Amino acid sequence: MTDITPTTPADTMKADLRRDLVVAMKRRDKAETSLLRLLIGAIDNAEAVPATGSDATPLPFGAGTAEARRRHLTEDDIRAIFKWEMDDRTAAAAEFARLGVAARSAALTAEVETIRRYVRG
Questions:
Q1: How far is it, in rounded angstroms, from Cα 13 to Cα 18?
Q2: Could you give phi then psi for residue 70, rounded to 5 degrees?
Q3: Could you report the per-residue pLDDT of 28-68, keeping only the tens digit for each?
Q4: pTM for the model
Q5: CA-to-CA distance for 116 and 95, rounded, in angstroms?
Q6: Which of 39, 68, 98, 109 has the most CB atoms within 10 Å of its CB?
Q7: Which domains does the chain have, with CATH numbers?
């Protein structure tokens, strides 16, 4: 496997997440594995450029289709994505606690703490 040097904040963060994903998979930590995959996907989705105008022109299969333009996310963009993920889980954890579903509330709270490890600044 070839090492690719990260060039953007998003590349750096995804490299960190993927490194930790391998560790979580080796530990067979299903919850952390799932969360790390979700965070990588959230960054990938945020990098996607909406298909509008000439971008929506269909290309034949294999004709550079893997070379779509991507948004370049800043550290602030990534922090905002992670903050949204933490806020969403915090609200859900509070609701589960209110409903008496302590195990799910605790799991979501643990996810928030995991995400917090990656929030820089």
A1: 9
A2: -130, 150
A3: 999 999 999 999 999 999 998 876 655 555 556 665 555 56
A4: 0.80
A5: 20
A6: 39
A7: 9-46+72-116 (1.10.1510)
